[in-house]
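[Q] Does anyone have a clean structure-token version of this?
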Amino acid sequence: MAHRKTNKAWLTPTLLGLLAFILRSIYAGMDRVVWGDEPFYLWLGRSWFSGRGYHLWFVDHWDYHHTPGYPFITATLTRLTGDMARASDWSYILFGTWLALVIYFLTRRIYGPKSGLAAGLLIALAPATAIMPLYWGTMTEPPYWALAMTGTFFAFRAFQRWRILDIALAGIFLALAYYVRPEAVVYLGAMGLILGLRALSRAPRIRNLGYPLLLGVVFLLAIFPYLAKVHQETGLWTISQKVGANFATAEGLALGDFRQFDIETWGLDSTGENVRFFSHETADASALAYILSDPLAYARILYGNTRKLLVQLLNVHLFPVYLLIPLALGLFRRAWDHERAWNELFLAFTLLPGLSFILFFVQERYIAALAPTLLIWAGHGLIELGDWLQETLRQLRSRKDGRVPGKQDGWMIWLPVALLAVFFLMIAPRQADSAYLAGSVRPVHVKAAEALTPYVQPGDVVMSRYVAIAWHAGAEWLPTPAAGIDETLAYARHHNAKFWAVDGYEAHKLRPQFAPLVDDPENPPPGLALLLVVPDATGREPVVIYRITP
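[A] Here you go.
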């Protein structure tokens, strides 16, 4: 009997994992553009595992901008699949399935098995977690979420009953999440704080405080090799080198001035040989100095980021506004007792990593870290709604003598979950066309890459603002700097670039100095020879490709 119960207990997560796996396998087969940071991680893994060092080919120093977790994952999977893009797809499939399962087990511990299954299904099916990571341009979201929420799961086990093993596992998994994305340090802070509050609520308080302290020790020991390497390269001891760099390059983006952001990020450094994003000169950027230089301006950024967060969060890509109803039911349909209040506080603390981007700038893929917790509440709320429907139907069908029918209407509790699941299956594939960040990638980039491919030899370098053009052409990439044409050509020759792809949107919206290269390609300046003009769907913003001459 016990053996049968064990098998039955594992049937639900097995079927849930199979559903998540199959669905992601289907989505991974859809056409998509490899763009944004994803090629950086893939190239870093290739370079690292081939013994050429942990850096992109045009950078002369170890890459401290991109933590090595995702390059390690994709390089390992590349060894197994033989293809970098396919390795990225497999990471999305495997870690996406992992995420659905860990949310199931976490929710089951808090609310019970029915709510656990409902939350797991939402994670498996909702656009935010099921399909959007394919189009956000990093592909780091699935492993980051899976590892961070696994650390959160073990932290919650310790939250329920102090155990050194759970604390150690929480620290290890949060550290692994940090290696994928350094903002996982906010998860550490959130878990450490809520565990500290829990420790102070129980006797013996002083001894219990050792558990959150142990969490921090395990985490720091696990990430110390990386911190030491960053210190070796930059001379700085910092938990996240990206904090200062983000402040240094993100003011324009936070204020909606994309031309300013373009200059802050892709302008040339003082040597004229590197763009700022990959330059040593942004390594020691100070977040505190940035804030203190103009506190009022920073306050305006915080206000604008808060408004952006609400607008971007409550959309079909992340957390559709209609899910606020089951979320509210999940939180407030039943009165809280002491333990329920603590559990809800624990979940509320898991929102801090997503909310922390208010301090920098808000983009859909950053605040998507809020989605797993919000979907937990919504999944529980759907079960509460189904329970209400079931009980209401039973009462309406009750007999005049007061006797209530049996549980033949038990299926009613799953009706809200089933309807939303079907709806998500219908709408998720349709999100792809609107998923790309406006101005960062366009379908014409793939067309340009396809047109350029016959001219590209192994090792050829394509300079472009948009990495997708070089990636899909099978070439090496060099970022086009936000600089004058002469400075740009000098920079391109320094790095032995052979082709220069100029995008119409880039020239007309961000870098007007490049507009003549798009508007009058037949008369290029000295040093350039026209190779291709690839029109976009509108005919107004083509990609013009030049050969760079000596």
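[Q] Thanks! Anything notable?
[A] Strands lie at 461-464, 476-479, 499-503, 528-534, 543-548.
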